[in-house]
Amino acid sequence: MRHNxxxxxxxxxxxxxxxxxxxxxxPKSIPVPTVNKLPLWRGFNLLDFFNPDPSNARPDTKEDYxxxxxxxxxxxxxxxxAYPAYLKF
Length: 89
Description:
mainly alpha
């Protein structure tokens, strides 16, 4: 069984190499992967409203923080929220 697998690998490798040598235009016929057209967004999580207990919430974000984020290259801010931040139970 092992002998058959080795001879198969040897034969198939030799055939593949011969096919590549005999057809010099072959690598050009391989499709080029397309570039991802999604924009490169760089977001920042702002956790002011994330704590489920509003009394233990983080201090408010200052306007300077947004300037820092923009200087660091962030495009937008995500605001994850816990339900108690906007619902009364």
